[in-house]
């Protein structure tokens, strides 16, 4: 080997070894370590950071504070009870065996009672509804036979009613139970439906929901703030032999609004464009390059970054460079505590913007010079080098949240919306066919949107499946989660 190129070769080998060692450590942590983003031992506590950001006011009204504390402490404490809806109560009265006084012989009278409670489980029931339609005919035999038509049904000539169909859909996509497990549960309740029958029910039930999801997406794209993300989903593709193919669930939503999922066979720019459509406004996403290319082609898109992704990369660098990475993680944590304070105080967007300008912007102003100072001393492929390069490349989108009080600091709401699908695919492993991906997307859209609005997904899906067969297309907007009211 040429002696001139030996130092460069050794340096490259050293970098590769460090990179592989870091990768091994990450894999070991994924297998055995905690999932939380841990802090370095010398990092500040949450209380210390909050005190530095929000120092206590001058002690001018100590007596008034003491009075308020005394008033607060004087209130009787309410015993905590398990959160439960209004439940059916079955009273059970247990009389004492001794009702006559052994001293005087008189009958004892009731002076009070003691109450205790316990919760009991009653297995679900499958009810068979029998529809009887009398046939009427005249003795003259000239007027034909009269019979009432069957009411509209969610599955034409099918055995599943709206409640059972909603149960099957929610059990698979909300409780993450594969159909073969549902078949076993239903058998314990006295009915034996074939697994293929349950599969057909899922398909037929999902076919009613796309008009609702299309209307939800139309309203999302009509706004000016959208959060997007994507997650891989394995699927069985007849054209791919010997292994699972990979599809993607793409998701779009808005804080406090609906969430829409779409299934696409890839992760390319054309699928991101299909998700975003004609949307114009703030687009919050991670640093995936497809979104940047999309923003360059559609000038109406204003990229907004995700500090959660940036923070994750600095946390990964803690083991390699604990001191500089620890300082950077703490500075990011300060901004998150400012956001938590804004949520706890229920600040309006204008107030949140004012708070960010006062507290967060100075932290951001000191953050970038520190990144630029550390960058020359970091190997390009080292964890800290990657984290700094990612943050500097995304600097303008990452700091856009400080310019508008409506924007979130990160994309975590969308990641949380994806979480049910991540749990589900660990149970039923893969989508059975590429053509079936849309069913998952449609049903997840309905479930997650209901959850965001505090609706019981089963109540909603059951009611919607009951009403849709007899409704006109123009009436579909009345069934959106934001304006849904149960049928009286």
Give descriptors for this structure:
488 residues, alpha/beta, 47% helix, single chain, extended, two-stranded antiparallel ribbon, 17 helices, five-stranded mixed beta sheet
How many helices? The count is 17
Low-confidence stretches: 60-79
Q: How confident overall, as mean pLDDT?
A: 84
Structural class: alpha/beta
Helical fraction equals: 40-55%
Notes on the structure:
This protein has 17 helices and 7 strands. By secondary structure, it is α/β, with parallel strands linked by helices. The strands form 2 sheets. Strands 5-4-3-6-7 form a 5-stranded mixed β-sheet. Mean pLDDT is about 85; it is low at about 60-80. The chain has helices at about 5-30, 45-55, 60-75, 160-175, 180-190, 195-205, 210-220, 270-275, 290-295, 305-315, 320-345, 350-375, 385-395, 395-400, 410-430, 435-450, 455-465; strands at about 135, 145, 225-235, 245-255, 260-265, 280-285, 300-305. Among the domains are: about 160-215 and about 430-480; about 305-400, no CATH class. A hairpin with a 5-residue loop joins strand 4 (about 245-255) and strand 5. It is extended.
Question: Topology, pairings included?
Answer:
Blueprint: H1 6-32, H2 46-53, H3 62-74, E1 136-137, E2 145-146, H4 162-173, H5 179-188, H6 195-207, H7 210-222, E3 225-235, E4 245-253, E5 259-264, H8 269-276, E6 281-284, H9 289-297, E7 301-304, H10 307-316, H11 322-344, H12 349-374, H13 383-393, H14 395-398, H15 412-428, H16 437-452, H17 457-467
Parallel strand pairs: 3-6, 6-7
Antiparallel strand pairs: 1-2, 3-4, 4-5
Helix pairs in contact: 4-6, 4-17, 6-16, 10-11, 10-13, 11-12
């Amino acid at each position: 080997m040429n002696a001139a190129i030996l130092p460069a070769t050794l340096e490259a080998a050293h970098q590769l070894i460090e990179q592989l060692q870091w990768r091994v450590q990450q894999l070991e942590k994924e297998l055995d370590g905690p999932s939380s983003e841990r802090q370095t031992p010398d990092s500040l506590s949450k209380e210390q950071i909050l005190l530095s950001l929000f120092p206590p006011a001058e002690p001018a009204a100590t007596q008034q504070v003491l009075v308020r504390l005394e008033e607060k402490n004087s209130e009787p404490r309410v015993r905590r009870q398990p959160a439960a809806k209004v439940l059916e109560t079955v009273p059970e009265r247990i009389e004492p065996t001794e009702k006559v006084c052994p001293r005087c012989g008189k009958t004892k009278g009731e002076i009070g009672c003691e109450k205790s409670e316990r919760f009991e489980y009653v297995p679900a029931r499958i009810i068979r509804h029998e529809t009887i339609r009398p046939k009427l005919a005249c003795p003259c035999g000239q007027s034909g036979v009269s019979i009432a038509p069957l009411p509209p049904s969610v599955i034409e000539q099918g055995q599943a009613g709206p409640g059972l169909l909603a149960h099957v859909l929610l059990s698979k996509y909300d409780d993450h139970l594969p159909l073969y497990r549902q078949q076993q549960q239903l058998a314990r309740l006295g009915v034996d439906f074939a697994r293929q029958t349950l599969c057909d029910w899922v398909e037929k039930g999902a076919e009613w929901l796309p008009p609702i999801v299309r209307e939800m997406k139309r309203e999302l794209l009509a706004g000016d703030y959208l959060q997007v993300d994507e997650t891989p989903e394995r699927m069985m593709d007849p054209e791919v032999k010997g292994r699972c193919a990979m599809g993607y669930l793409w998701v779009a939503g808005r804080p406090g609004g609906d969430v829409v999922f779409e299934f696409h066979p890839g992760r390319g720019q054309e699928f991101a464009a299909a998700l975003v459509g004609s949307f114009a406004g703030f687009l919050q996403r991670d640093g995936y390059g497809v979104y940047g290319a999309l923003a360059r082609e559609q000038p109406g898109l204003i990229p907004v970054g995700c500090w959660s992704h940036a923070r994750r990369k600095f946390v990964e660098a803690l083991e390699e460079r604990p001191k500089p990475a620890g300082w950077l993680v703490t500075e990011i944590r300060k901004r998150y505590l400012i956001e938590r304070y804004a949520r706890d105080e229920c600040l309006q967007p204008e107030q949140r913007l004012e708070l960010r300008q006062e507290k967060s912007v100075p932290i951001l102003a000191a953050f970038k010079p520190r990144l630029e100072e550390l960058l020359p001393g970091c190997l390009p492929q080292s964890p800290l080098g990657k984290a700094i390069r990612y943050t500097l490349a995304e600097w303008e989108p990452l700091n856009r949240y400080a310019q508008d009080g409506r924007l979130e600091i990160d994309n975590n709401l969308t990641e949380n919306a994806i979480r049910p699908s991540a749990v589900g695919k660990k149970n039923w492993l893969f989508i059975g066919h590429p053509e079936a991906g849309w069913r998952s997307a449609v049903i997840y859209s309905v479930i997650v949107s209901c959850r965001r609005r505090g609706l019981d997904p089963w109540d909603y899906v059951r009611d919607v499946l009951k009403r849709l067969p007899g409704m006109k297309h123009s009436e579909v907007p009345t069934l959106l989660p934001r304006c849904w009211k149960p049928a009286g």
